[in-house]
Structure prediction request, 293 residues.
Amino acid sequence: MDFSAKMLRDNALAGKVIVVTGGGSGLGKSMTKYFLELGAKVAITSRDLDKLKTTASELSEQTGSECLPVQCDVRYIDQVEAMHQSVLAHFGKVDVLLNNAAGNFISPTERLSANAFDTVIDIVLKGSKNCTLTFGKHWIETGQINTVILNIVTTYATTGSAFVVPSATAKAGVLAMTRSLAVEWAKYGIRNNAIAPGPFPTKGAWDRLLPGDLQKKLDPAQKVPLRRVGDHQELANLAAYLVSDFAAYLNGEVVTIDGGEWLEGAGEFNFLGRYVTKEMWDMMEAMVKAKKG
Ligand code: HXC
Ligand code: NAP
Prediction:
C-alpha cells in the first residue's frame, strides 16, 4: 500500500491563501508542500528566516506555486501582527491559519525551571493564541467568511503525558481553544478544528523526544497497533481536507491520526495481544472453561 499517495483532486485549494506557522521544517513543511501542489498560496513563518527562505524557494520551484517566507516568533504579539500585515500586503488576504509551530523536550517536571516550562507554553499555547486572536479579529472586522483555523495538537492533549508536561498542558489549552471558538466564531464563518498526530518522524521532534541512543533503543512504531509510524503525506492529506471547502461542515473536531497508538496504551487488556501466543490462548481457554459450574 502506498501511504504517500496524494488524496485531493488537482487545484482543490486554488484561490486559498494559507499561513503555516513553523512551516520551514518537519510536518509544517510537508503540509505546506501539499497545499502548494493543490494550488494554494502559502506563507510560512518561524524564527529562522534563512531556513524559511531556503524552504520557500525549494517548494515554490517544486510545485510552481508561490510560497512566501515571513520571519515571526509567535510568542510575541507584535511580531505576529507584523507577520499578518506582511502576508496581507503580499497576498491581499488570508483564508486559513495553521497553528503548527511548537517547542518541546522530554524532562522530568521537577527538573524544569519556571522559564523552561514557560518557554514551551509560550510557543505552543500563547503562540497559537496570538495568531488566532490576530487573524480571527481581522476576519471578524472585515466580514471575511469561509475562513479556517487548524491547530496541530497531540494525542496527549487529551490523555496528558508524563515527561512532556509543559507540552501536554499547552496542547490541552489549544484543544480547549479549538472547541470553544468552533462554537463562538461559527457565526463569523470561521471553522476551528484540530489534528492530533501520533508519531511522524521529524528531526525537530526526534532530536528532542528521542535524544541520543533512545532513537535506536525505542522504536516508536512498536507502540502503534499498525506497527508503523505515520507518513508525512498521510498527515498532509488530512490537513488539506480539513482546510478545504470539502470539510465545510466539519467544525470543532479533533481528528486523531496515530495508527491507534493512544488507544493501545489505554485499553485494560490490550497488552495481551503482544504477549499471549495461540498456544497460551488455548491453555487459558481450557483453564477458564474448567471454572464453569
Ligand atoms: C530541561 C530545558 C531543556 C531540556 C531547554 N530547557 N531544553 N530544560 N531540559 N531538555 C530550558 C533552558 O534551560 C531554559 O531555561 C529554557 O528551557 C529555554 O531554553 P532556550 O534554549 O533558551 O529556549 P529557546 O532557544 O527559545 O528554544 C526553545 C526550545 C527548543 C523549546 C527549548 O527546543 C526549540 O527551539 N524547539 C523548537 C522545535 C521543537 O521543539 N520541535 C519539536 C516539536 S515535537 P533556563 O531556566 O535555563 O533559562 C512536538 C510533539 C511531539 O511538539 C509529539 C510526539 C508524538
Ligand atoms: P519541528 O520540525 O521542530 O517543527 C516545529 C516548528 O516550529 C519549527 O519549524 C520551528 O521553526 C517552529 N517554531 C518553534 N518555535 C517557534 C516560535 N517561537 N515562533 C515561530 N515558530 C517556531 O517539529 P514537527 O515534528 O514538524 O512538529 C510540527 C507540529 O506537529 C508541532 O505542533 C508538534 O507539536 C506536532 N506534532 C508532531 C508530532 C511528530 O511526531 N512529529 C506528533 C504530534 C504532534 P524555527 O525553529 O525556525 O522557529
Observations:
- Strands lie at 17-21, 41-46, 67-71, 96-99, 147-152, 190-197, 254-257.
- The domain at 17-292 is CATH 3.40.50.720 (Rossmann fold).
